[in-house]
Design goal:
Elements (H helix, E strand, L loop, with lengths): L5 E6 L7 H15 L3 E5 L3 H5 L3 E4 L1 H4 L20 E3 L2 E3 L2 H10 L4 E6 L1 H12 L4 E5 L15 H22 L2 E6 L6 H9 L4 E3 L7 H13 L5 E6 L5 H16 L3 H18 L2 H13 L3 E5 L11 H19 L5 E6 L2 E6 H4 L11 H8 L7
Parallel strand pairs: 1-2, 1-6, 6-7, 7-12, 8-10, 8-11, 9-10
Antiparallel strand pairs: 2-3, 4-5, 12-13
Helix pairs in contact: 1-12, 6-7, 7-14, 8-11, 9-10
The structure holds 6-O-phosphono-beta-D-fructofuranose.
6-O-phosphono-beta-D-fructofuranose (F6P) binds next to loops.
């Protein structure tokens, strides 16, 4: 009798719609199609370190396709720097031992940038790891799209649609802050889809005078309201220069003192940067004499049932992952490529970001319909 093969699965990083759909797809294929056992680890890599898991079967995988979030739970804990009982500990050895003791033949990690860096650390420990790209930010390289992005795009677009009526009725500037971390995909996509008049993204530092000029131009032509879609990571030209200097100091820091100082400057910058959207709105009000109001979309963009596109993407990638595991693949991300998938070495993904390029077709389309990008 051949020993039954066993696979582990975990979800890590920010939650997103489509995670449960991906767990369901990988689980149904691994268990139903290929006869493996599957253990679902709680709360990302923390569950793997603390040996907290649930055996997955028909009951656990039933009825979760349309549920938002992840029933396994998630965390941003890093295997090599985990806070256990209030102390930071390197848990890579414990995780490796748990993996071996549980006789896992492979481990699937579903997550974004941070998860791929952590998955690579497990690959370097000799574990057999595959990953699925998930984040509403869509900033994972080497894949067409990430699980969760389409749903968040729809939520943000619908929210901005709704903001048009109040902006129009009150002749106001309404600024909507959109998630995306250091990438502008969500703000750019939602801004285009909802006809925002101004779209500000981290990849294009903005000149507030140019934004004000665009809004004043609209007023002169009788349209005295504007919608500004601003990515949470968007920066003014001044802030971008300050951030680049702080980042340079951080990268060049060698001594303990230099590292401490760089960390302090980064914290100062982050503190200064938060509330950036409120300051931007107030500054635009001063420059244009139009009232301004702010709506921060926040975690609404990560909630609720996945879109049909994300359900299909999650099912495609989850089942393809199962097939790749059975075929012996290891150390790869299951990337979405057109209608198919492509296994991409995790080493090529970890530590990289997919950002909006200056020549991207979405930027060209936004400019062509007269959207101001702040530059
Ligand atoms: O990575 C997804 C994301 O929602 C980002 O857009 C956002 O900046 C971040 O997570 C928020 O992190 P947390 O959930 O830890 O507050």
């Amino acid at each position: 009798m051949k020993p039954i093969k066993r696979i582990g699965i975990l979800t890590a990083g920010g939650d997103s719609p489509g995670l449960n759909a991906a767990i369901r797809a990988a689980g149904k294929a691994m268990i139903g199609e290929y006869g493996w056992e599957m253990l679902g680890f709680r709360d990302g890599f923390l569950g793997l370190a603390e040996n907290r898991y649930v055996k997955l079967g028909k009951n656990e995988l039933a009825g979760i396709l349309t549920l938002g979030g992840t029933f396994l739970g998630t965390s941003r804990d890093k295997p090599h720097r985990m806070i256990i009982n209030g102390r930071e500990r390197d848990m890579l050895g414990t995780i490796t031992a748990n993996y071996r003791r549980l006789k896992l033949d492979a481990l699937v990690c579903i997550g974004g940038g941070g998860t791929h860096k952590n998955a690579l650390r497990l690959v370097e420990q000799g574990l057999r790891v595959l990953t699925l790209p998930k984040t509403i930010d869509n900033d994972v390289p080497c894949t067409d799209v990430t699980i969760g992005f389409d749903t968040a795009l729809g939520i943000a677009s619908e929210a901005i649609d709704r903001l048009h009526s109040t902006a129009h009725s009150h002749h106001r500037i309404v600024v909507a802050e959109i998630m995306g971390h250091n990438a502008g995909w969500l703000a750019l996509g939602a801004g285009i889809a909802s006809g925002a008049d101004v779209i500000l993204i981290p990849e294009i530092p903005y000149d507030i005078e140019k934004i004000a000029a665009a809004i004043r131009r609209r007023s002169r032509h009788g349209t005295n309201f504007s919608i500004v879609a601003v990515a949470e990571g968007a920066k003014s030209l001044e802030d971008a220069a300050l951030f680049a200097e702080v980042e340079r100091k951080r990268k060049n820091a060698r001594t303990k003192e230099e590292k401490e100082y760089a960390k302090l400057r980064m914290t100062e910058f982050d503190t200064k940067h938060s509330g950036n959207t409120l300051r931007l709105a107030r500054h635009l009000e001063e420059l244009t004499k139009l009232e301004s109001r702010v709506t921060i979309l926040g975690y609404v963009q990560r909630g609720g049932t996945p879109s049909t596109a994300d359900r299909i993407l999650a099912t495609r990638l989850g089942t393809a992952c199962a097939r790749l595991v059975v075929e012996g693949a290891s150390g790869v991300m299951v990337a979405a490529r057109g209608d198919g998938v492509k296994p991409v070495p995790i080493a090529e993904v970890a530590g990289s970001l997919k950002l909006v390029t200056r020549d991207h077709s979405w930027l060209q389309a936004a400019r062509a319909v007269g959207t101001s990008l702040g530059d």
